[in-house]
# Entry
Amino acid sequence: MANITFSSPKLKKDITVYATAGDTSTLLSIAKEHKLPVNFECENGECGSCAIQVSVLGNKQPLGIHLTEKEKTVLKLNGKITHAQIEAAENSDIPPPWRLACQFIVRNEDILVTF
# Structure
């Protein structure tokens, strides 16, 4: 199980929810399921309105990540990630600080989501 802590000025306090390991739900679908006010419009990775900051909690090495082509393009065009961060994610499994909630698949690691 993964602990996902959502933090935002829109919330009275940080909220932690649990995601089942191996589930292929996106972070946006988990937020919607728990009625958390993460912004979104298109839900398919093209608009960038669901951009969130994701930090891995704990001392573990972050799990390998996958950025979709849409996510790379939208985040780069919006100035959220750099080409170097994309290369680090693809070559060294170093997660970038920004993701799209509609594209991010939760893994078996505790994360902090700031929006």
